[in-house]
Amino acid sequence: xxxxxxxQFKAAARQPGRHYPVPLALxxxxxxxxxxxxxxxxxxxxxxxxxxxxxxxxxxxxxxxIWFPSWWSELGMGAEPSALGTRMRIYxxxxxxxxxxxxxxxxxxxxxxxxxxxxxxxxxCLYRYKRLKDRIRQAGYCVPVVAARGPLTIxxxxxxxxxxMTDIVDHPERTKxxxxxxxxxxxxxxxxxAEVLGEQVEGILILxxxxxxxxxxxxxxxxxxxxxxxxxxxxxxxxxxxxNDASVAACLDLLPDAGFHVLNWGLQPGVEAAAxxxxxxxxxxxxxxxxxxxxxxxxxxxxAAAIQALDQAPYHPLILSFGGATTTGTPPDNIRAMAxxxxxxxARHAPAERRGAxx
Length: 359
Hints:
Blueprint: H1 3-14, E1 25-27, H2 33-37, H3 41-46, H4 48-61, E2 66-68, E3 87-89, E4 97-99, H5 122-138, E5 145-149, H6 151-159, H7 161-170, H8 172-197, E6 203-207, H9 216-222, H10 224-232, E7 239-244, H11 255-258, E8 262-265, H12 271-278, E9 283-288, H13 290-295, H14 299-311, E10 318-322, H15 332-354
Parallel strand pairs: 1-2, 5-6, 6-7, 7-8, 8-9, 9-10
Antiparallel strand pairs: 3-4
């Protein structure tokens, strides 16, 4: 994103009510960018020049969009769990697979903490930043946000989803030790990225769909403390964004207390219901359906869905986005339709807001 776009995002994230103009911000990474740029995933992951040009093409072709978190150096879901001994399968034409390998949980205490600077594919992602951060800045862009998978998601790739859900119920104390390890890995990974990128970093993005797999009691005991620890590891003035498009029904009203400022969530609850529960304590980032509308819909349907999301809960802070990441197969014209919708909406509402009227 451009520096002025980051200022727009920050203003919307911190506003106690609806901020005008409403930004359009879309999470984008390897499921969408290589195909749009016409390159293989191998090139995108392993050729720094191809990665740079692909990201620049997206930013130049869609200047109205805040691509978030901007110049994301990642390797699908695999950067963090690759440092814990998971198996990565990397294909030329699609996102990688991450396979957990059998591990005796009784030996968990002997597992050495990973070093993001040397272990797994995190080192490759850091190399991209080290090599290209000056060129990114010289091109007029910034990388103000660093990203990491959250502690439950990292643990699910290490342990397996079914096994982890069983552990949460049957072995909560052992599971807490695993979450201590994955939380430290998450924090260390974010700090390593921020160290390479320098003072331009002013925010974090935590992606943890597995938080949506547990009920409220287990969230409070086995997720909330670790998410809060991550947020508290970074300056209070930084913007903290949480992505979970599985379900936030059990924890929605608790996320502000964890330290987050922005939530990118799925389709349930809707904007109005989420706003009622949050009472302006958290900026919502959504809520255009990413698959049914974003991928399968026409530009007119995307435009209508975007206007509908913008019209809901007009008193509540909102950043227009998909209800999740930019999904594989999303047509570029549908993204342009979202940009037209937010542009038209802002043109109608910004003048009234400047006069001090209720939007």
